[in-house]
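Section 4.2 – Deliverable D4.2 (structural model, holo form)

The reporting period included a commitment to supply a predicted holo structure for the target in complex with shikimate-3-phosphate. Inputs used:
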Amino acid sequence: MNEIQLKPIHRPLIGELEVPGDKSISHRAVMLGSLANGTTKVTHFLEGEDCMHTVEAFRSMGVSIDKEELTLTIEGKGMEAFVEPREPLYFGNSGTTARLMLGLLSGLPIFSIVYGDPSLSKRPMDRVTIPLKKMGANFDGREMGSYLPLSIRGKTLNSIDYTMPVKSAQVKSAILLAGLHAEGETKITEMTPTRNHTENMLRAFGADLKTDGNTITITNKQTLSATDIYVPGDISSAAFFLAAAAIIPGSELTLKNVGLNETRTGIIDVLLAMGADIQINNEQTISGEIIGDIQITYSPLQSITIEGDIIPRLIDEIPILALVATQVEGTTIIRDAKELRVKETDRITAITELLTTLGAEIEATEDGMIIHGRTQLAGGKVASYDDHRIAMMAVVASLVANDEVILDDVSSIAVSYPGFFEDLNKISN
Ligand code: S3P
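Output (structure tokens):
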């Protein structure tokens, strides 16, 4: 356990930061670079624990991946070059590795066994194994292949026309990766758009992929060709400092080179609707993704209702938005976010328990929460639930609390934001 005592600082956050690379894009760059023919260079890669599990999985299957600081060089030789891993593949805490790899492995001509940490072993995998089995995939595991560990005997798959019952980019991506190795045309329809990094990157690698409204079609007609990928800063990591600056009077912060893909910018839309002063500068498109600098200057905020189609665009930012809601006047309602219950932990319970301990007025509902602001947070002893986003939210809460916040364990932060405390120091001193 890595307990930490966080003293209140009550100082504005001032300065400029470049947050680490996007987690979703980093995973996908390793996967597509490994499947492609040729050398893929990935720069500003996120060396968090989750993405390193993806790197290790491909190394165990014979792909050469060299890492020098934040640059990866992947020597892809196409799917035929994959070898059967001798040991089970360990995915740690990473839901994205697990779900996307299940899609990818089910279409490769190898046998594998995959497993994760206790949190990942409780998270539902049937959302991917059900559609993948319809494509002919062979899985075995607990409760008919609903949970890790799972074994996979890969084979050539058949295509499907699938309407997704859950709003999940991981499910969509798993089917797209399986569709790369399926005969015929694989079609996926989403009820609500979710992050589209897999589609953007598959296009950059030359896949035969079409998008028509909420329907995506992919075939196995094109093999992937290597291309270089620059990974933008992760807006889900930037969100912690953006939110902190939004609630600490006098703050003025610029977050440089952050990914601004529209499927991810719900946090900016919500903060603007609450009254935040945010400017976007230096927008450009690199490797199919929009990036830019986010500049925020503190201004007082009001409460809001967060619901409907915006939820997938900010699903990972709900822990930090809940904290913001405790610091603004009025009642904030968050609904349609039941997916939070199956993240790294049940985030509705974790957020509610943590903020209640610190003195907030917050109630959990089945699919969200109701937060009555504004409350001066006190301090206290809280748990991170081994969840990186809950731990970082608690650290930001300590910046506005009256007394010390004692957080049981900060080691989970390494999942997505190694260097989080160093970056916080840079802007809070
Ligand atoms: C991710 C998709 C989201 C998100 C997760 C990363 C991805 O999960 O919460 O952190 O990289 O595709 P769901 O697809 O389960 O919504």
